[in-house]
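Title: [Solved] Transmembrane protein 216 3D structure

Original question kept below for reference.
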Amino acid sequence: MVNSSLAYEILLYINSFYFGLFATCELGTLILKSVLIGGKYDDSENNRTRLGQDYGVLVALFIIEAARLFLGRKGSLSERDVPVLFSVLLTVPSIIGVLYLLTGQVVVLRIEYIWCTLMLCIQSLEFIFASMFIVTMCRAPSYD
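Solution (posted by the thread starter after getting help):
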């Protein structure tokens, strides 16, 4: 039997470091794209609005992902199911934000495909193991 709590905690630990790298690289590439590839954003008012939307999604993703990791670590270490449940619920907007960065930007670099795909894989595994952790925490204790 797989210890879902241990696997979930390991994934959260890995993601806490990867998220810092992901956030720094995504912010850097968005700044680089807005400076160097500014022509695509400056063509019309719509493209400038999309640039602001890209920054907004990125900031919202940073906040949601940080809260998700904090709640997941807190719930996993204290073996409580409520913070982990909120962490699982925050996984959905986090995945949507990463999918937007993967497909919805005006310009998506090849390296961003790699970063976002790796982030989606980590989040999917965390979702699976967090769900297993919640199920094991919610079932009645067996005294056999």
